[in-house]
Design a protein that fits this description.
The chain is of the alpha+beta class. It folds into 5 domains: about 5-140, Sandwich (Jelly Rolls); about 155-245, Immunoglobulin-like, CATH 2.60.40.10; about 250-550, Alpha-Beta Barrel (TIM Barrel); about 560-625, Immunoglobulins (Immunoglobulin-like); about 645-730, no CATH class. It is built from 14 helices and 41 strands.
């Protein structure tokens, strides 16, 4: 029988020009510099080494080393003999050590995350951590054993097809193996074990079972899993075994009514997740994965977009166990590479091979925002068609999907390649107004009523330290993030045709090229801060919408000092009725759906309590003589409001004119161009990659320059600079 040995300890790590240091796995060399901003984290080739004694093996047995994740390329050498080369930082691969083993051994693993032109990802708004950042194991197997090497295979594939009318499932089980005469299959979890045998032919065995009165994998309330064990038999003796779990479910997507699970409407409402954490990078353990899942469950989400790459098998397992519907994808993102086609196909093949048995996964993602810095060319279309064909060949049971950048035209030939589409829209944050999100989906659905469309990303950055009683785009306050998500939640709830919606993001995450919102190296669109503990106020809006756990939550608890006579107190709750108490006295009762608003006079320090039945929450607010500058990101407050007080000369240009008009006039184009170049430079690689995008330019042309400046933020353009820009524009006369 096979034996697994955890192989994480007693490694040594060395970067070029540095001393060798002892490390334990999981490990990344970018846990610090990949999160501190500057877009200067070290990307290169580093060496991991380990000495070990020859493991005990059965006669004729084989020994494999298994890497669950080594980013981004890896070369494995044992005792001077090169055994494996792997390109792709997020999937499992194995190498056969057997023939190179000695009594005492030295294994060397060279791992490289440096820039290149063939291995995805190479451009995206997140840090590409380097290292052996998931578990490493030794796998000892007998001479005849289930397959281990090809595409990181699990050796076993389970395909359940459910007939809801008959309440049964036909379950096809396949295995691949080296040697053996037959395979014994046993399904557990039904009314007694279900067993059968299949002959091995050309390294493959297959069997079909019919499960009557099948127990469905049926939503958050009933995530039921079966298990199957395959035993490889040689001359009547079991020599190897593999096990997996599976769920029996039927799903389909209707372009008008959205997602259906087991015959009933099941709107998919959830979040996206990156796999890193502050101080750890992507070197997570099962402990961190479990903590993240508990937060998903607290939120009440029923779907996760696991972006933008293959995640740890432990996390897919947690999704199976909790009936979280998953969008799984490969890191074909932002920038198409002419030399990257084979790598994209390889990563997709590994994703499907390794993740096929997870009932939580309902679709395979071909790419994300691939047009953000690439034109739609025949080559790009051909690569997507090849990926789409590969998915359908390997897995006819699941649809394909793409996440499109908001600037991609609705009639693009890229969109219909996949079975489904979703858009990443940020109207109301980066560009435009909140209402444009509603307009976009209504226009798209009217144009293509027979297409499946979803909302794959939306969000607004917020630093939990920043607050305002008059929140506005670009101020990075918790309050504006709440305003943003309140609008988007209503947008979603009014449009049942959206097949799935995913907040970007559940957690703040590392993007070393960013420097905004008071933090370097972070994307702060998370509902929870990078520590994976501090829930921002917007988290509780979605909890009110999705969770069945009754609660009441006062927003603005970090916004203590308030320079106003009457302040807004906001409460999120799923209780329907909330009573507010001020300094122990009942103030007012409101009946509402999720969002409760109270206007409270303040004169000193006040204890505020929100009560719903037996539930209560409390906080303190204090009347301040002046605004607390610690709550304001740079000069954001002045940037937002100064121009409301200005008298503008009629007949002359100003920041209130549309960006397109200013860029088309020879007198104003140089003024506007210089400041936009500065704003674009502050957005890192992604902003650089969007230069020349015609659809984006059309959107910007229709916006006022005032609106664009507000979105740039005070760390890029101060209030004094905006005033100077406006003064310069006011010197240029408009033509009659």
């Amino acid at each position: 029988m096979r034996e697994y040995t955890l192989f994480n300890d007693n490694w040594f790590f060395k970067r070029p020009g540095e001393a060798t240091t002892p490390v334990s796995l999981p490990h990344t060399w970018n846990a610090v510099d990949g999160q501190d901003g500057g877009n200067d984290y070290w990307r290169g080739s580093a060496l991991y080494t380990k000495k070990f004694a020859k493991p005990a093996l059965p006669e004729g047995g084989r020994c494999f080393i298994e890497f669950a994740g080594a980013a981004m390329t890896a070369d494995v050498v044992l005792n001077g003999k090169k055994l494996a080369h792997h390109e792709g930082g997020y999937s499992t691969f194995r190498a056969d050590l057997t023939d190179a083993l000695a009594e005492e051994n030295c294994i060397e693993v060279t791992v490289d995350n440096s820039a290149n032109d063939r291995v995805y990802p190479q451009m995206a708004d997140f840090t590409f951590y380097g290292g052996i950042y998931r578990d490493v194991k030794l796998v000892a197997v007998p001479a005849e054993h289930f397959e281990l090497v090809k595409d990181g295979s699990t050796g076993i594939k389970v395909t359940p097809v459910v007939d809801l009318a008959k309440k049964e499932a036909v379950v096809t089980i396949e295995t691949w193996q080296n040697g053996g005469n037959e395979v014994r299959f046993e399904i557990a979890g039904h009314d007694g074990p279900v067993t059968g045998f299949a002959k091995v032919k050309d390294g493959h065995a297959s069997i079909e079972f019919c499960l009557s009165d099948v127990h469905l994998w049926d939503g958050l309330e009933d995530p039921y899993l079966y298990s199957v064990k395959a035993s490889l038999v040689k001359d009547g003796e079991v020599v190897d075994e593999v096990c997996t779990r599976f769920g029996c479910r039927e799903f389909h997507v209707d372009p008008e009514k959205g997602f259906f699970l087991n015959g009933r409407s099941y709107p998919l409402r959830g979040v996206s997740r990156h796999q890193d954490r502050i101080g750890l990078g992507n070197a997570l353990t099962l402990k961190e994965h479990r903590e993240d899942m508990e937060i998903v469950k607290e939120l009440g989400a029923n779907t996760l977009r696991l972006a933008h790459y293959q995640h740890a098998q432990e996390f897919y397992d947690l999704c199976d166990e909790n009936c979280i519907i998953v969008w799984a994808e490969i890191p074909y993102i932002t920038k198409h590479m002419s030399g990257g086609k084979q790598n994209a196909l390889d990563q997709m093949r590994e994703l499907i091979t390794q993740c096929y048995n997870h009932p939580s996964i309902v679709c395979w993602g071909l790419s994300n925002e691939i047009t953000a810095s690439s034109q739609v060319t025949e080559e790009l279309l051909a690569d997507h068609k090849a990926l789409n064909d590969l998915c359908h060949e390997m897995d006819p049971t699941r649809p394909t999907v793409m996440a499109h950048a908001f600037m991609l035209e609705k009639d693009s030939p890229l969109i219909p390649i996949a079975d489904m589409a979703s858009y990443n829209l940020y109207f109301g944050w980066y560009l435009g107004e909140l209402e444009q999100n509603d307009e976009f989906f209504d226009e798209y659905h009217a144009m293509y009523p027979d297409r499946v469309i979803g909302f794959s990303e939306y969000g607004a950055d917020a630093n939990a330290a920043f607050h305002s009683s008059k929140p506005d785009q670009g101020d990075y306050t918790e309050e504006y993030q709440c305003v943003y998500h309140e609008h988007i939640l209503k947008c979603i709830e009014k449009r049942p045709f959206l097949w799935a919606t995913h907040v970007w993001n559940l957690f703040d995450f590392a993007a070393d090229g960013r420097d905004e919102g008071g933090k370097k190296g972070e994307n702060q669109k998370g509902l929870v801060e990078f520590d994976h503990k501090t829930r921002k106020d917007a988290f509780y809006l979605y909890k009110a919408a999705w969770s069945k756990e009754k609660f009441v939550r006062l927003c603005g608890r970090r916004y203590v000092d308030r320079a106003e006579d009457v302040t807004e107190i906001k409460v999120y709750s799923n209780c329907g009725s909330v009573t507010l108490f001020v300094d122990g006295r009942e103030f007012e009762t409101e009946n509402a759906d999720k969002v409760f608003i109270f206007r409270v006079p303040i004169s000193g320090e006040h204890k505020i309590e929100a009560v719903a039945g037996e539930l209560r929450d409390e906080m303190v607010v204090r009347r301040a003589a002046e605004p607390n500058k610690a709550y304001i990101f740079g000069d954001a407050g002045n940037v937002v409001n100064w121009f409301d007080k200005e008298d503008l000369k009629a007949g002359y240009f100003s920041i209130k004119d549309k960006f397109g008009e200013l860029m088309s006039h020879p007198g104003t184009a140089p003024i506007v161009g210089r400041i936009m170049a500065r704003a674009s430079a502050s957005r890192g690689e992604v902003a650089e990659g969007t230069k020349g995008n015609k659809a984006l330019q059309q959107m910007m042309a229709s916006m006022t320059f005032e609106s664009l400046l507000k979105k740039a933020g005070a760390n890029v353009i101060s209030a004094d600079q905006i005033k100077a820009i406006n003064d310069a524009l006011q010197q240029v006369k408009k033509e009659n």
